[in-house]
Amino acid sequence: MTAIILLGPPGAGKGTVAEVLAEKGYTHISTGALLREQIRLETPLGMDIKARMDQGRFVSDRVVVEMVREVLASAGGEKKFLFDGFPRTLAQAEIFDGILQSEGTSIDEVILLECADDAIIERLSGRRTCIKCGMVYHVKYNPASSAGVCDIDGCELIHRPDDNVETIRKRLDVYAERTAPLIAYYKAKGLILPVDASQSIDAVRSTVLEKLR
Ligand SMILES: [Zn+2]
Predict the structure, then answer these.
(1) Could you tell me the CA-to-CA distances from 130 to 103, 126, 146, 152, 163 in Å, in that order?
(2) Which range, of 22-26, 40-44, 75-79, 127-131, averages the lowest pLDDT?
(3) Which H/E stretch holds residue 192?
(4) Catalytic one among 36, 57, 132, 160?
(5) CATH pick for 2-115+174-212 out of 3.40.50.720, 3.40.50.300, 3.30.1510.10, 3.30.1330.10
(6) DSSP state letters, 130-180
(7) Phi then psi dihedrals of residue 142, to 5 deg
(8) What is the DSSP letter of 104?
(9) Residue 127 annotated to the active site
C-alpha cells in the first residue's frame, strides 16, 4: 500500500493536487466525505456521529481512525491512497501510524502545500459566485465579461460570507494552530514534501508530478 497525506491551508489548491494524484491511480480519502457517507447510510457509526454533531461535539479521534481503518480493510492490500483532512490531530496521526505498522506498512509522503496568508486572502476574497449556477469567478484572475453578472446565465454574482477577509483569516489561524504539531511530527520523520502553492495551478500540478517521481 502507498499512503500519501495532503496538508495545506484552505485556498492552497488541495483539489488540484487531489486531481493530479487521482490521475496517478490514488484513491482520494476525505474524512469529511466519509463522515457524511456514514450518516447518509445510517450505519451504527453514522448514528453515533450524527448524535455527537447535533450536540456540537467533535467526533472522537478513535471513531475517525476506525472509519479510515475500515476503508483500508475493505480495499485490500495493493492500493494507493491520498488522505485529505486526515489525520487532523496528533493523536489521530499516532493511532494511524500504529495501524499502518500492524499492517506492515507506513506513510510514504506528506505533501505540504505552502502559501503565504496574503496570497490566499487575495485568492479567496476576490471570488464571486453565481447565485444560480454556482460558477465561481475571480475579480482579478478570472473575471466575468460583465462585472457582477454570470457569463452563463446572466444572474447576479455574490461575495459569499465564507470569502470575507475576516472569515478567511480565522480559518487560516485555525489551520496554522491545528496543523503545526502535525507538521512538526512528520518533519521529525523526514516525510514532509513541501510544494510552493503560491504558483499557478499548472505549476503546482507539474511540481507535484515531478516530486512524486
Ligand atoms: Zn450562473
Answers:
(1) 47, 13, 13, 9, 13
(2) 75-79
(3) strand 192-196
(4) 160
(5) 3.40.50.300
(6) ETTT--EEETTTB--SBTTB-TTT-PBEE--GGGSHHHHHHHHHHHHHHHH
(7) -155, 60
(8) T
(9) yes
Is the sign of the CA dihedral 197, 202, 208, 211 positive or negative? Answer: negative
Taking only the tens place, the pLDDT of each residue in 153-182 is 999 999 999 899 999 999 999 999 989 999
In the sheet that 80-84 helps form, which strands lie side by side, from edge to edge? 27-30, 80-84, 2-7, 109-114, 192-196
CA dist 197 and 14 (Å) reads 9
Rounded to two decimals, what is the model's pTM? Answer: 0.84
Give 125 Cα–ligand 1 centroid separation in angstroms.
Answer: 19
Residue ranges per domain, the chain? 2-115+174-212, 116-163
Burial (CB count within 10 angstroms: exposed 0-12, middle 13-18, buried 19+), residue 56: exposed
Report the alpha-carbon distance of residue 59 to residue 49 in Å, rounded.
Answer: 6
Q: Which of 24, 50, 52, 171 is catalytic?
A: 171
